[in-house]
């Protein structure tokens, strides 16, 4: 027996420990994403990403997406994007990111665009405002610099009869009385900057008044003249009968749904076939029927987030109930079921509505009319720009303007979370708002 | 069956062990005892049940009936394994490890293993220590298996056909090592079908045939009972008469022939010619193992298996 | 022999287990037929499909997805080949029988096989992760890297059970064929090569019976790319499948020890 041999196993524990440590060390050196800040602090601007967020892209919900914003536009949307190091990141877990909302029916004045933006409405489709307002705000649409206002698209002045609906607000209104005036009228609107032509057909019958209104021949002539100028024509109506008549005249869209009766499925199919879009403005319809959502919306919102004007208009009521909300909602259900494109619009600042804030009520009314959360949100994001022929917004897609709304919660399962706003970006800039403290 | 009284020196043993593979009865109420410090050769032709008996003593086969004890414990008990080494008849080790690596692994199992150099020396593997097992010849592999059996410096070694496949030189060397084991006070059990090997190494030989212990004793004893001649002829002498010859160790009829196993063929022949001068077709041949077993059992069924 | 009893405590077992693992690993590493496909297949597949091709533009979904699936694939190989073919081979050559006569605890033998598969798996994971992180640009949270590595390495256990079941029953030559069939078939159907959502629905329905499917889904869940099944359901089915494999293996060994 010579000198004892060293036990061969002596080093095994050491080798095992070193190997395990090397493996763990390797895992530690692997690249990790830059830390993402939870929303709640100051939000990044122009160049940033919202990571691991549920995206509503304008049509569908897509979980676990990254959205990369560069120079105020969307650079990419996808899962696990290869984001550059150092890019500020917002942790989107537990949140839903969607295109800034589009209110397809407002009347802009005062702080309308600021109020709207604060509630995530980044673009409004105005259905009657002073041409001077439109001229003033027009440039901001294509400008990606910092702004505290929503972008504005508008019909500008409306086509109505002398003394007709629309003339009562103190805004100087050009009127017309005969079909022969239609081409010149439309040309003037176009020169003023109207993005489309809106026609008023309102005799006051539904609310017991007798208001002068355009005759059918003139309405038809305006529609024809608008199309000749390659403008869309939309129309204010209050009854199903007028809506159907406008459909026959070749109208492009209705800016209200009627409240007098429920449309038949056959007639709904005719709207769908003609490709006419409908902005039901259920917010104002329920308010007119005496069932305003205003008080509920006010109650659910922190007082400091609501402007005086929003508070005031939300609290207002119509003098006496007109129509029933059920008839309107049922008609919307049938129109939607038939395949008619529905656009979300509030008709703010009519009584019972508020700029911006009422869009969150409108979404829930559309849900009541049978739209799924995704369909209701599509009506408030992708559909309005589609309907009005605007391509740079309304969807979370590469190249579109980074108008974004970040909401805490999962809108697919609970659409009422749309008002739980965690952040709003306009052209890639975060919107300073009361809740961003 | 010849069953020795239990010896205080018994290190391991089987008693009353039967084992069956399907319909084949491999062991039939076998008693086998291994005594402290001896080399026990378990001798028998192929198929006699040697490997089955060893497997039961190693605990690699599950006991069906009877008892098997090693160091007073069950054969596969942990403390038994520590004190025992084994070289199996058919076995290999992973081919991609070297001789030295295999030795190192096996040495690590035991509390006081033999030094690697000593193991290499014993098995004649010094030049082959870094060769992979798969690159070795059959005989070299066999030597590795021998070294592995001794890695733990066991008190008791089972060697199942250890020299199978070895050349003459390898066999001699192994014999020397087995003798050295005995000299070092170790106990060894080896199975073989060579009487010569059993004679050269064993203190005691246990002869197994068809699963039964048919003889047990010193090599001289066993040899004297087997190292005879077979006298074969056609004769009128009855087997009963032949058995009465004092020199006859075993008698059997094969067809027309009568076979008498004996250590003193001349005396037997004298008696036979006296009784039957007309006997014919006479041959006298050396006894093969098979005949030796015949002689030991004294019974005579067919003669299958190799001689 | 008082020293013996002292030496056969937990430390002794651990020591033998580590040493067995070391030699088992060495022995496997020197076997090109085992080491080369085991280490290179998953790495080459990943390199080719996830790094060189870089499908999906700025999105890292493909390299991230494949990181999980090729990782699971990477431990499937050493686990079922090591146990399935290796065990059958050791049994056929008698090496297993010899080991049973020595003081080596049976646990150390199993530990060494599982450990060897885990070491090969860890090497595959290390290479895949390095490729993913530094060549494909995959970024994961620290906890995700660790969870993914943990799930992939834990897969060694259920996969070894499959190998054990095959090795316990099949002869060496048959084992090679059976293991290859299982290896390729399960990988394909469970979506370890081609994402499962791209496969026909029928195959997805079949996949549910394979542990590879559940481990793939658990690994993908770490990176939110799974089909959305419940973690508990995956674990329960995995447990049942492993138990079945172990029972099959146990029956095979009982037969082998001549009962």
Give an overview in words.
The complex is a heterotrimer of chains A (437), B (307) and C (259). Chain A is an alpha/beta fold and 437 residues long. The termini of chain A are far apart. In chain A, the strands form three sheets. In chain A, strands 1, 2, 3, 4, 5, 14, 15 and 16 form an eight-stranded mixed sheet that branches. Helix content of chain A is 31%, strand content 17%. Chain A is elongated and about 120 Å long. Chain A has 14 helices and 16 strands. In chain B, the strands form three sheets. Chain B has a six-stranded mixed sheet with strand order 5-6-7-3-8-9, sandwiched between helices. A four-stranded antiparallel sheet of chain B has the order 11-12-10-13, sandwiched between helices. The model of chain B is unreliable at 1-6 and 299-307 (pLDDT under 50). In chain C, 80% of the residues lie in helices and 0% in strands. In chain C, helix 4 packs parallel to helix 8, helix 6 (106-136) packs antiparallel against helix 7 and helix 7 runs antiparallel to helix 11 (211-222). Chain C is globular and about 60 Å long. The chains are: A alpha/beta (437), B alpha/beta (307), C mainly alpha (259). Chains in contact: A-B, A-C, B-C. The B-C interface holds B 21, 58-62, 76, 78-79, 81-86, 88, 90-94, 96-97, 101, 105-106, 108-112, 132, 145, 148, 152, 158 and C 1, 3-5, 7-8, 15-16, 19-20, 23, 26-28, 30-31, 90, 93-95, 97-98, 100-104, 257-259.
